[in-house]
Amino acid sequence: MKPGEKILGVEGGGTKTAWVLADREGEELQIVDQGRLPAANFRLATPERLRTIFLELPKEVDRAGVFLAGCGTAADRQSLARLCAEIWPTAKIITGSDRDSGLAAALGHADGIAVNAGSGSSVTGRRGDKIENAGGWGHILGDAGGGYFLSIQALRLILREYDLHRGEVQFTARVLHALSLNTLDELVRWAQIADKMEVATLAPVVFEAAANGDARVMEIIEEGAQVLTEYTEAVATRLHLLAPKVILLGGLFHRDSIYTHAFRRRLKKNLPDARVATADKSPEFGAALLAAEMDEHAIFRAGTSDDKIDNLAAALTEQRNPRSENLEKLSARKLVELFVEEEKFVQEALRGAIGDLAKAVEIVSHSLRKGGRLFYVGAGTSGRLGALDASEIPPTFGASAELVQGIIAGGATALSRSVEGAEDEENNGALAADERGIKDRDVVIGITASGRTPFVLGALARAKSLRARTILLTCNPARSQNIHADLAIDLATGPEILTGSTRLKAGTATKVALNIISTGAMVALGKVRGNSMIDLQIMSTKLRDRAVRLVLEITGSDYATAQKKLEANNWKLRAAVDSPSSN
Q1: Among residues 5, 198, 208, 392, which one is catalytic?
Q2: Known catalytic residue: 423?
Q3: In Å, what is the CA distance from 98 to each residue of 40, 111, 407, 528?
């Protein structure tokens, strides 16, 4: 870092955004300005809202460290870095989670544990290069011990006491006054629409009630301290820290000594040698420290990798299609004719992959016969196609829903709408493989039109390390050849009519390929009689009619007799066909 550089440190959370502007004097950073702005949680605030907040920060800076609650993945950091680059286009920028800035403020480069309790909560520990986390899952499923948690517990107490005893907790009137409300009905309506930040602002009222001797509210305080203590002990155990340095951060610890005492008292029971202290540096100063110390590698990771962009641009699916360059000028008929004509490339791609598709059928069939499962892993269109094929296996072949499963980046939400950045994290793909309990007898098919989707490659790599069979399905023969899979299937569908829209030819070819693989495997497992779905799940009037006609064709009986056979066998098609009287 050069002397005289202006360094901006920003830490955003559920109730505020704090910032410092510092420069370097000797070996130290000196704060020259600081301030607070509205809340900036990366997950809860829109990009437009974040941009509005950032525009109020100092503009003339050489380095900026911006660390926000909810900014947890590499994709999140990249998105935040791109937004920051709009505000500070000439600055070197590093982004991350408020965990990172809190750890820097609490421990610098030392080993230990940072316990943060503000609107939310989190526990982060470090020993050497190893980092361990606990909590910090957000206010819906986590954040126990934070201001939101304590406030919600207190509001529930108010209503519970009213329902049970028609009485009021001592601080009910204080809560209503703080919110400018008059009745419990109004309180309930407020809670139904209040966001995390609004609820968490009641924390001072909760602590005031505890300090005034309200035993039931004090139990809530003790519960929050207990959860944070348990998280701290868990992190210390995983890091093998017997006498950890434990630094407390966040408004709850700094503002309310009652919480600090409750935490310290409980921690000493199981970690008697822990050294507990309150942080003397703020998280925003920690953000400035990280910006001051970042090297060129860190700066490079904060933005978008040029290499990745170049690799993606080289994919055939990303090339411009010369046959559709005047797409917006075509009549409806000409556009349709062009689409139909382009489908010949789908057929050619599938014909060129017949040998590899046959190998895929054999690999999957072999694994399923041994009791394994088939997993499709993809992002965006590829993920949806995998999930679609998996969902059709139980009704078509009467197989368990566990037999063929779809894994899509971004989870169930991504099935119906785009989840920005979900595909950019290899670790998330590996984690998804772990969470599905993939074993050596399973098969994982990674579906990625470009052949480079990090989520997919991460899942394949983890599956490979677990000795599962792996197959890569792409529409880009020009992909990197360094992807380790037992089999690679490249469907050369070529450039899309709409540049880069792989839901078109690439999507069609991918769907057919998955149809071939899964149907071929089900045939090998004996799920088909002739060319009929012998284990079809009969769930509708249409399927009942189809089942009756199938029994009729196989057994040579009439319609009424075939229907009776099915009814006698509880509409189990295989049983009806194979019953002795059927021959």
Answers
A1: 392
A2: yes
A3: 11, 18, 29, 55
